[in-house]
Amino acid sequence: MNEDVAAREISREQEFVDTVYRQLQESTKSAQALAQEGIARGKLGHEGGLVERDAMVFQAARRMATLDAAHEGLVFGRLDMRPEVDTEPRYVGRIGLRDQNRDVLLIDWRAPAAAVFYQATHADPHGVIRRRILRSTAEKVIGVEDDLLDAEALTESGSDLPIVGEGALMAQLSRARDRSMHSIVATIQAEQDKAIRAPNKGVVSISGGPGTGKTVVALHRAAFLLYADRRRYETGGVLVVGPSGVFMRYIERVLPSLGETAVALRSLGEVVDGVKASRRDDPAVAEIKGGAGMAELLRRTSRQAVPGSPREFRVFYRDDVIVLGSRELGAVRRQLLSMGLRNRSTTKVASTLIDAMWRQVRGERGRERTKEDFAEEMRTSDAFLSFAAEWWPILDAPSVLAWLRDGDFLARVADGVLDDESVRLLTKSWGDDLSIDDVPLLDELRYLLGDPPIVGDADEDVLGLADTSLQEVFTAADREYAGPRGWQPPTNRVEDDGFAHVLIDEAQDLTPMQWRMIGRRGRTATWTIVGDLAQSSWPVPAEAASARAAALGEKPLHEFHLSKNYRNSSEIYAFAAAYAQRVGLDADLPDAVRSTGIEPEAGIVDDLESSVRSSLAALSGEVAGTIGIVVPVARRAEVSGWVASWPEVAGSLVGGADARVVVLTGLDTKGLEFDGIIVVEPDEIERESTTGRATLYVVLTRATQRLITLATVR
Description:
Layout: H1 3-41, H2 47-69, E1 75-81, E2 90-93, E3 97-98, E4 104-108, H3 115-119, E5 128-137, E6 140-148, H4 151-157, H5 168-173, H6 190-196, E7 203-208, H7 214-228, H8 230-236, E8 238-242, H9 245-251, H10 254-257, E9 263-267, H11 283-290, H12 293-302, E10 313-317, E11 320-324, H13 326-337, H14 349-358, H15 364-367, H16 371-379, H17 382-391, H18 397-402, H19 407-413, H20 420-429, H21 439-449, E12 481-483, E13 486-487, E14 501-504, H22 512-520, E15 526-531, H23 541-552, E16 557-562, E17 564-565, H24 570-582, E18 591-592, E19 601-605, H25 608-622, E20 627-631, H26 636-645, H27 647-650, E21 661-665, E22 674-680, H28 682-687, H29 692-700, E23 703-712
Parallel strand pairs: 2-4, 7-15, 7-16, 8-9, 8-14, 14-15, 17-18, 19-23, 20-21, 20-22, 22-23
Antiparallel strand pairs: 1-2, 1-5, 3-4, 5-6, 10-11, 12-13
């Protein structure tokens, strides 16, 4: 294609894009004017004006947020149709816009009218002659890429439709990656579009091998659902769960760039409000904490006597010495637990203890009085109230989880659930901060303990056992825990089962306990689940499958499989696929759609540090985007120190928003991609856990352009 033709086409598209941005400014001004009008309504001096103010300001703020989020690359697609379908080109963008006459200027990519942009193929063009991708930086069009889908129609119509570029998909795939995943709304293929626009009922499962676009498709599905049924999904909320904080930061720009800002993005260590865990346990410990047996262990824990609580209460009443010893208190505890969740039964502690004590009143003088007289005396006794408060306090999940730090206590509740070695490993595992695998345990205990009672409940007043400072009713979800020393109500409350949609990425890695945690937040939700079993880091798939089934319930399942690898060059993926087959992984092997002609390098070296340094220097000059150095967990600090000490690297490639180089462990690479990857000591990564082969397979599929492995001589 003549460069002059390409420049002319870019100039033409720029004229249209300029028109769209002018309209965007007008729409923003209209939203600002609406906000100002709403504020003025609030000054009318009557209740109706306040209601109108709140409604108008809310709508204006939401519209301004949408317009602002969509500003970058607002227009990305154009369709030229057969004359009998449409004589005017259709432009597709991140949001919908109308001109001053209310005519459609830009079609929202999620609208039914835009579906053909993704569904049209050479085999079935859907009336599309030419599909054009506009590549932009800010408001400037820097390139166009065309797909000619119906050459026969082009000839028949006699239209002057130049075809520019190598094709939209290949152009997108060859672009350098940066530290954030960009929206690929412009290059979604037909099989991906089917998953995005699947029915909004039940569960949509998206499977496929590495590089098939599962994550991006799932995120676009979330945006599509918000567009298609905004009232439902915006009111209920959309929860997006990913494997790590690194991954969530990587994708955080995608949904805002699609015009959606009302989505909760949380890593597995952040699913519980108020909790943020990033530390990973050793694989052996993570397997114990994530196992299905932990649910039973925690159930037992929640029913135990409070460590350090009084073991006996003794009082003289008239002629009787009344004693509540271990046997009597054990019976009372079992009775209270039979009444329901532990914290709710706090309202029954006084009366249940008094019942047990009254049965010991046998003397004549004692029986001269009624049980009500006895109860009144106990309820006004500081000694009794102090004992009851200490023996049956309101419990919070962090405090109860801390009971498991005691090896003897843990061994007692773990009897028949964990073996001795597991108890030993678990006892040693507790750190000063929560690990990612501790968060589901905390959540489990929160539900086992239940909500504390609220003063003013229909239940009896506990007379000093309830907290009279509480002024409102909190749900269990309101009491998300901030750490091991107590809880605090979150600023933004969300009912755990109130999410309208739950999206889980890298679902194959979820432990049974994590499935239980997320399942509570999606009892009435629709779901999107993304995963590839061959990439799983969870060693007991049957347990995870059972927990997943319990979380999803009887919801209908819609399954979609993606078959094309758009991430890796064919050379890189052939290397990764050969490894998967060699070590016996039952891997889904998609077809890589492009080739670079550059084979991966597998080096056996004497000096690891100098080899990493020289490989990094070479890659930094050969690829324009990001470079990942993937290391065994035990070597992360060492290699990070090397990289930071190299002036040419530390000064220009590491740190800050534009960092190109990052040092990660194998599990940290889940869901990420880089232009170049350096894998340090791959055999050590494989040996780190029982699922190390799957982890190394994942690592080998993260590179888009270059792959180097470095191992020392054995």
